[in-house]
C-alpha cells in the first residue's frame, strides 16, 4: 500500500515538475506508438474492408490466420526483427537496430493484425447490412471498400485505439530491438522495466501511472474530437 | 445509346438453393410498354426470388435471363427497392445522392439533384440529418428516391409498403405512379390486393415458384382464370 501511495506521489511530482527525462521518454513513446499505429492503420483498415467484400478460395483460412496473428508474442516479433535488422541480417545495411525506427517496425508487425482483424469484424457486419444495396447499385469493389470504411469509421476508430492501447503498453519487442538506450530508444515501458530492475518501485509505479494517464487522455481526446457519442449510435 | 434495356426475356429460368428449386422453370417477357406489373401470391411463392433474378442479385441455376442491351447498360438502368429499406450511415441527402456518386457524377451536381428529390419526398427539413433517425415510412421514401434518382428504365419493388401505415403507403404509391408516368417500367411484388388494384396494369399470380396466371389487371380482378388465384383472392389457404 505504501508503495502504491509512493508511486502516486512520484507520478504527481514528475508531472508537476515536468521532469525533463519524463517528458523526453513520454514524447518518444508517443512518437513511436503513433507512427506505428498510423502505418498499421493504413495497411490494416483497408485490408479488413477488402477481406469483408472479397470472396476467394482460402478466405476462411486467411481470416483464421489473421485472428491468430492478433496474439503474436511480442518477444518473438522482437527476436525476428532483431535478426532481420542485425548486421548479419538481410536488412543490416540500413543500420536500424537500436533505433526508434526498429521499434516502430516491431510495433507495426504486432499491431497491424489487431487493427486488420477488428476492422474486418466490423466491416463484415456492415457488409452484411449493405450487401444487397451495394450490389444492386453496381458499385465496384473499390467503391464498396470506400463506402464501408467511411460509414464504419466510428467502429474503425475503436479498432485503431485498440491497436494504440496494445502498442503504447508494449515492451517485449521494443526492449529487444530498441535496447532501452538512454536519450535514444528509452520509452515509458522500458524505463519502467529498468526502474523495477533497480528496485526503484515508486518511480516505476509513477511512470506506470503516467503511461496509463497518457493512454486514457489520448483515447478521450480522440473520442471527443471525433464526436462518437454526439452524432448518434453508429 | 439504346432507347431502353427492355424487353427482358426469361427463358426456362430456374433458381435452386441448396438443392431445392425455388422458382421456375419460368418463361416470361416484360416488354417496352410502360406500366406496373404486379406479382401476387402466397408467401414462399418465389416473388422476391424472381425480382432478384431479373435484377441480377440471383443467378439462374438453369435457363437464361436476357436483356436487350449490353450488361453494363442493363445494370446502370435499373434499380431495386427492398422490403426492409437499407439506409447508409450518412445523411439523408448523401443517401439519395449515393448512386450518382457511384456513377462518377460531380459531387455538387449529385447533391443538387438529390436536393430536388428530397424536396419531392417531403424530407427537406431533415436533409442533413443522419438517415437512421427516420421512421420506417420515411426510410422507404428515401430508398424510393435513391432508386429513382438515376431515372431507371426498370424499377423492381419488393413489397415496398409492407409494414407501413396508410399515409406512408399513399406517399410510396404516389412515387410509383409518378415513376410510371415518366416512363419507368415497374415490376413489383405485393401482398396487398387493394394496392394491386390501384397500381397494376397487369398481374402475375405466382404459386410454388411458377407463374400460374398472367393477365391484364382488369381481367384478373374480373375473375382469375386459375383455381389457385381465385382461392388466393378469396383469402383461402393455399397449401
TrEMBL record, chain A:
InterPro entries linked to this entry: ABC_perm_TupB-like, MetI-like, MetI-like_sf
Organism field: Sneathiella chungangensis
GO CC terms in record: plasma membrane
Domain of life where this protein originates: Bacteria
Localization, UniProt: Cell membrane
Keyword Magnesium: no
Protein name: ABC transporter permease
ABC transmembrane type-1 domain sequence ranges: 26-222
Transmembrane intervals: 30-53, 65-85, 97-118, 156-181, 201-222
Chief subcellular location: membrane
Membrane topology label: Multi-pass membrane protein
Keywords: Membrane, Transmembrane, Transmembrane helix
PROSITE patterns associated with the record: ABC_TM1
UniProt-listed GO biological process terms: transmembrane transport
UniProtKB/TrEMBL annotation, chain B:
Annotated Gene3D superfamilies: P-loop containing nucleotide triphosphate hydrolases
Keywords of the record: ATP-binding, Nucleotide-binding
Transmembrane segments annotated in the record for this chain: none
The organism's place on the tree of life at top rank: Bacteria
InterPro entries to which the protein is assigned, alphabetical: AAA+_ATPase (IPR003593), ABC_transporter-like_ATP-bd (IPR003439), ABC_transporter-like_CS (IPR017871), ABC_transpr_LolD-like (IPR015854), P-loop_NTPase (IPR027417)
Gene Ontology cellular component list: plasma membrane
GO molecular function, one term: ATP binding
The keyword Nucleotide-binding is annotated on this UniProt entry: yes
ABC transporter domain residues: 9-233
The name this protein goes by in its record: ATP-binding cassette domain-containing protein
Native source species: Sneathiella chungangensis
Amino acid at each position: 500500500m505504501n508503495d502504491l501511495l509512493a508511486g502516486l506521489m512520484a507520478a504527481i511530482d514528475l508531472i508537476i515538475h515536468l521532469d525533463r527525462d519524463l517528458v523526453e521518454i513520454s514524447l518518444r513513446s508517443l512518437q513511436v506508438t503513433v507512427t506505428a499505429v498510423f502505418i498499421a492503420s493504413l495497411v490494416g483498415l483497408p485490408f479488413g474492408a477488402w477481406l469483408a467484400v472479397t470472396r476467394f478460395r482460402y478466405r476462411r483460412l486467411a481470416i483464421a490466420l489473421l485472428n491468430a496473428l492478433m496474439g503474436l508474442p511480442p518477444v518473438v516479433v522482437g527476436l525476428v526483427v532483431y535478426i532481420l535488422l542485425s548486421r548479419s541480417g538481410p536488412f543490416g545495411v540500413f543500420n536500424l537496430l537500436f533505433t526508434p525506427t526498429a521499434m516502430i517496425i516491431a510495433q507495426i508487425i504486432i499491431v497491424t493484425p489487431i487493427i486488420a482483424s477488428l476492422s474486418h469484424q466490423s466491416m463484415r457486419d456492415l457488409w452484411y447490412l449493405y450487401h444487397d444495396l451495394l450490389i444492386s447499385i453496381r458499385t465496384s469493389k473499390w467503391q464498396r471498400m470506400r463506402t464501408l470504411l467511411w460509414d464504419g469509421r466510428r467502429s474503425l476508430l475503436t479498432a485503431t485505439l485498440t491497436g494504440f492501447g496494445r502498442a503504447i503498453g508494449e515492451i517485449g519487442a521494443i526492449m529487444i530491438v530498441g535496447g532501452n538506450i538512454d536519450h535514444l530508444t528509452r520509452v515509458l515501458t522500458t524505463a519502467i522495466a529498468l526502474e523495477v530492475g533497480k528496485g526503484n518501485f515508486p518511480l516505476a509505479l509513477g511512470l506506470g501511472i503516467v503511461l496509463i494517464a497518457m493512454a486514457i487522455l489520448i483515447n478521450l481526446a480522440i473520442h471527443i474530437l471525433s464526436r462518437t457519442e454526439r452524432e448518434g449510435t453508429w | 445509346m439504346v432507347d431502353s434495356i427492355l424487353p427482358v426475356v426469361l427463358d426456362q429460368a430456374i433458381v435452386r438453393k441448396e438443392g431445392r428449386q425455388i422458382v421456375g422453370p419460368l418463361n416470361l417477357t416484360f416488354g417496352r410498354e410502360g406500366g406496373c406489373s404486379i406479382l401476387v401470391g402466397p408467401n414462399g411463392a418465389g416473388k422476391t426470388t424472381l425480382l432478384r433474378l431479373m435484377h441480377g442479385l440471383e443467378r439462374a441455376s438453369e435457363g437464361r435471363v436476357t436483356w436487350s442491351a449490353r450488361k453494363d447498360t442493363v445494370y446502370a438502368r435499373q434499380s431495386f427497392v427492398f422490403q426492409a429499406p437499407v439506409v447508409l450511415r450518412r445523411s439523408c441527402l448523401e443517401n439519395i445522392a449515393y448512386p450518382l456518386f457511384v456513377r462518377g457524377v460531380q459531387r455538387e451536381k449529385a447533391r443538387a439533384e438529390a436536393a430536388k428529390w428530397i424536396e419531392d419526398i417531403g424530407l427537406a427539413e431533415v436533409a442533413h440529418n443522419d438517415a437512421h433517425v427516420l421512421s420506417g415510412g420515411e426510410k422507404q421514401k428515401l430508398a424510393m428516391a435513391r432508386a429513382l434518382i438515376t431515372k431507371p428504365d426498370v424499377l423492381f419493388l419488393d413489397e415496398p409498403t409492407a409494414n407501413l401505415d396508410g399515409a406512408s403507403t399513399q406517399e410510396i404509391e404516389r412515387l410509383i405512379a409518378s415513376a410510371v408516368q415518366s416512363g419507368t417500367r415497374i415490376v413489383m411484388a405485393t401482398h396487398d390486393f387493394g394496392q394491386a388494384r390501384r397500381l397494376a396494369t397487369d398481374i402475375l399470380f405466382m404459386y410454388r415458384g411458377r407463374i400460374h396466371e398472367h393477365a391484364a389487371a382488369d381481367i384478373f380482378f374480373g375473375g382469375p382464370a386459375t383455381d389457385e388465384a381465385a382461392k388466393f383472392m378469396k383469402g383461402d389457404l393455399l397449401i
